[in-house]
């Protein structure tokens, strides 16, 4: 038994789950101090709203405490932290005499939740499981691990949310059956095709990932589209003082409107300005709502992500006909339009909506308890080098997306040369490369909050979009190779070979060409995703 606790840190809500040794199953951990209970198919789910408020007296209110105190829309409250952290947002908010980033707010929130859980379960030095989106970059995984370590948990395992969901649904799924997991949460869309194997008696199951794909598209994206449309319907501009003053409240009302239209044929949004008494209002039918989604290419974006995951599974011998069930996960999967996209491919009979809110957390708890996940690398990786002909940098591919690990043979071999006369040290710059797909560029505009807490719509500059899709992984922990003797410009200095170990680390073996000496052998350079 590796551990008992799992954390599913979500954009809107966070779930704690534990593996119950007595019952040999995962269960949701009640969190009476911080959480509230939602009723969902399959039982009660204790979910902690992903909120943290920094009070003027230096106290921090977390989760449902924030809502109970009426502070959810306060400028001192942080929400939707996961999405900002995943996108490496530089936005900070001035709180008293300091600036607080979403990364720090998220770490403070997770720290409070972990400390509570440790006390509730009597945890000491046990390993915990943390969930990550399918398309998460290494910086987000590193942030999660650092946040857990700061809270006293140095032993952590990471599992992608879609694979965890497959394990979470596993109790009602036949062994050897291929599944598609459609996880549409607050911040991301994750789709995975997985194969569940039979477990040893009384133990957790094994999950083999056949294909997966993701997109920076979630319930928060839909909330933003509604926000922009409501502002337009009221003849206002996003920079209007009335909108800026009430932006956080309006965004929360848009989220409530989206939820209402998932179960009702029509709904109304109303919001009165406390200073002027002026009201913002908008009436929507579900037809209106789905027309707005169609304008944003919502259905086609969902379909493209599913097709990518299915194509990857097909390469491993599993086409759509071999997939026994499509499992709907995440609050966004409760939207009828999302369900219709999945049913268009799999039909009514194969689509299941048994436990959309807690499958990820329960599966992560099984993973913490020892369930195995056989996986592959999700992103591509490259070595940056100088292109002298163009006077710019270029990238030499090292790891292709979809590579299975661990690898017994070298996956890439590279020779590196000296850049100038007398060079004695050569550095390696490893970059994580997001896949650029037609029609799936990150949002041209996004909703951000200025230092006062007021929301505004800002354009994502092309340079910033590029930075989000090519991340220098070892910038802060560079790897240098030292020569025994100074080299001349253009002289071949080292022959390198790269492998991936069982912990998903890219390892390096380096041979000094001049001496034939192996200076590094299976040296871990970066952790892959």
Describe the protein.
By secondary structure, the chain is of the alpha+beta class. The protein folds into two domains: 3-218 and 299-374, 2-Layer Sandwich (Nucleotidyltransferase, domain 5), CATH 3.30.420; 380-437 and 444-527, Substrate Binding Domain Of DNAk, Chain A, domain 1 (Sandwich). The protein is 28% helix and 36% strand. The protein contains twelve helices and 31 strands. Strands 1, 2, 3, 4, 5, 11 and 12 form a seven-stranded mixed beta sheet that branches. Strands 19-18-13-14-15-20 form a six-stranded mixed beta sheet. Strands 21, 22, 24, 27 and 28 form a five-stranded antiparallel beta sheet that branches. Helix 9 runs parallel beside helix 10 (336-350). The protein is globular, with a radius of gyration of 24 Å.
Q: Care to give the gist of this entry?
A:
The protein is an alpha+beta fold and 529 residues long. Helix content is 28%, strand content 36%. It folds into two domains: 3-218 and 299-374, ATPase, nucleotide binding domain (Nucleotidyltransferase, domain 5), CATH 3.30.420; 380-437 and 444-527, Substrate Binding Domain Of DNAk, Chain A, domain 1 (Sandwich).
């Amino acid at each position: 038994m590796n551990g008992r606790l799992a954390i599913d840190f979500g954009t809107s809500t966070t779930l704690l789950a534990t593996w119950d040794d007595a019952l040999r199953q995962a269960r949701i951990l009640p969190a009476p101090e911080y959480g509230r209970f939602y009723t969902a198919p399959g039982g009660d789910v204790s979910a902690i709203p992903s909120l943290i408020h920094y009070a003027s007296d230096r106290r921090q209110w977390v989760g449902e405490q924030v809502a109970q105190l009426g502070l959810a829309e306060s400028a001192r409250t942080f929400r939707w932290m996961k999405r900002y952290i995943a996108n490496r947002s530089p936005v900070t908010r001035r709180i008293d005499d300091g600036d607080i980033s979403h990364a720090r707010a998220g770490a403070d929130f997770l720290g409070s939740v972990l400390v509570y859980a440790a006390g509730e379960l009597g945890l000491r030095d046990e390993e915990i499981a943390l969930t990550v989106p399918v398309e998460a970059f290494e910086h987000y995984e590193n942030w999660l691990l650092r946040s857990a370590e700061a809270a006293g948990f140095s032993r952590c395992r990471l599992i992608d949310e879609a694979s965890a969901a497959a394990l979470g649904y596993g109790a009602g799924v036949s062994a050897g059956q291929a599944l598609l997991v459609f996880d549409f949460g607050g911040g991301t869309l994750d789709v995975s095709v997985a194969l569940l194997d039979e477990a040893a008696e009384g133990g957790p199951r094994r999950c083999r990932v056949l294909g997966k794909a993701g997109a920076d598209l979630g319930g928060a994206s839909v909330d933003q589209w509604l926000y922009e449309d409501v502002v337009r319907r009221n003849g206002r501009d996003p920079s209007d003082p009335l909108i800026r003053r009430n932006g956080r409240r309006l965004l929360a009302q848009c989220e409530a409107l989206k939820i209402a239209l998932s179960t009702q044929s029509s709904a109304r949004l109303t919001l009165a300005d406390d200073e002027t008494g002026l009201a913002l209002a908008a009436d929507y039918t579900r037809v209106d709502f789905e027309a707005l989604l169609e304008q944003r290419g919502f259905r086609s974006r969902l379909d493209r992500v599913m097709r990518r995951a299915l194509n990857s599974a097909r390469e491993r011998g599993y086409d759509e006909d071999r997939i026994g069930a499509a499992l709907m996960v995440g609050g966004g999967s409760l939207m009828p339009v999302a369900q219709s996209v999945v049913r268009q491919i799999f039909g009514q009979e194969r689509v299941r909506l048994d436990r959309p809110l807690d499958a990820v957390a329960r599966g992560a708890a099984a993973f913490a308890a020892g369930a195995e996940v056989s996986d592959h690398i999700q992103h591509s990786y490259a070595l940056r080098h100088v292109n002298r002909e163009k006077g710019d940098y270029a990238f030499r591919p090292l790891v292709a997306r979809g590579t299975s690990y661990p690898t017994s043979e070298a996956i890439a071999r590279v020779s590196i040369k000296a850049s100038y006369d007398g060079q004695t040290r050569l550095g390696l710059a490893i970059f994580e490369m997001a896949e650029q797909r037609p029609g799936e560029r990150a949002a041209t505009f996004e909703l951000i909050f200025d230092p006062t807490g007021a929301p505004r719509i800002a354009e994502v500059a092309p340079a910033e979009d590029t930075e989000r899709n090519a991340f220098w992984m070892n910038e802060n922990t560079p790897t240098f190779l030292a020569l025994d003797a100074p080299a001349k410009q253009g002289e071949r200095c080292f022959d390198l070979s790269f492998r991936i170990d069982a912990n998903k680390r890219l390892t390096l073996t380096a041979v000094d060409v001049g001496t034939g000496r192996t200076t590094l052998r299976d040296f871990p350079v970066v952790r892959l995703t």
